[in-house]
Predict the 3D structure of the following.
Amino acid sequence: MAGTNQIFRLLSGPITFLVLLALLPIDGKALYMLATMAWMLVWWTLQVVPIGVTALLPMILLPALGIESIKEVSSNYANPIIYLFLGGFILGIAIEKWNLHQRLALVILKRSGTKPRNIIVGFMLATALLSMWISNTAAAMMMLPIGMSLIQLVKPQFENPRHYSNFSVSLLLGLAFAANIGGMATLIGTPPNLVLAALLSESLGIDLGFADWMLFAVPISALIFFTVVIINTRVLFQMPASPLMGLKCVVNERLTALGKPSFGERMVSVVFFCTALLWIFRAPLSNIEILFWLDDTIIALIAAVSLFVLPGEKHSPLLEWKDMRRLPWEILLLFGGGISLASGLSTSGVVGMFGESLAGLSHLHLLLIILIVTAATIFITEVMSNVALVTVFAPLALTLAPILGGSALELAIPLTLAASCAFMLPIATPPNAIVFGSGMIEVKQMMRSGLFLNIICALLIAIYCYKMVPFIFGS
């Protein structure tokens, strides 16, 4: 039975492709491109094969259908943005290998106090800060064991079982939410941000710099974070305000077990903070004549190479090639497939076609249009990969924005931010799935919290982008 089900799942993409070829009332490359996009979306949504495998379909279908040559398609898989994310992944592997992530998290937890709400806030803050610099998936996986330990530790301190249950659910949901929110603040924090940067560079020649993005995204990320904290710890889940005894002991024990920072950990810290500083101040540095070549991708690659050169322990480098087994290669392929899909949509005329069909919305106020785009993105990404969603719809936003009375960034940026705010379902984001896998959260609990947060985030993102995108990006 399982084999039959898999066959049907595998056929779902080709069947969708053929059905659209037969039914859509359009001709030529646009028809082929829409059918190709539908095939990829079906396989991404149903997770028929690994997402990186689906991302390779453009290299087969686009040349075969005469949309683009293999040379044009394959060049998308070597986009500089992909190497930016590659460098970020390698830096994240080094941080994890040398336990720098645990030390940073425990230090923050040590300073958060022993009240249940403060514990959750400190835990969420540690997760969000990690997620700014490594993938939200890695941040969630790193913090989950610490969170489970905290939950077990404080259990005897709760006299009311309901308060303990509320604390446990709030802590784990807060972990997932913070991992998603933290990733919004930097270009490397979550893949949709890099997809947008690649599309702006390829389509409009706009260089979305690391510092520019942080200047814009950190405030809205912080606003959403504290809004989620209030709702998660005070509105949805009630718990006592009195301190919990014994919490300081477990944090101190874990810090003691880590011991003093090793030489390797200190070296990774140096690379990490130097890389962050270079990203933040890259724009003024690149104005210096001898540093004209410096950009975010080159900085990431410098960091990655240095980790294989600088010493760790016993004359071994900080990273060895065997450590690259943990590198999520499929995400890098996903970037290439996404950029190829966006390029094909433009080349085939699909983007222009959608622009003409949606031009009727131009009579609406721009803020309302941004709100519609934001809300639709948040709820669609509950059942669809946020990377795939931004890859497919950001090119449409870039083209439609002038028709609808706004700039390209005024639609594309809120769409991208909204793709990181899917809080309702376990399948919406990897952090959601990770905390759901703990067995301590029910789907209805996640849906109840997530629905409320989705609506609030849609409003916050729409209003913030309407006011701040023109101000910061001058668009």
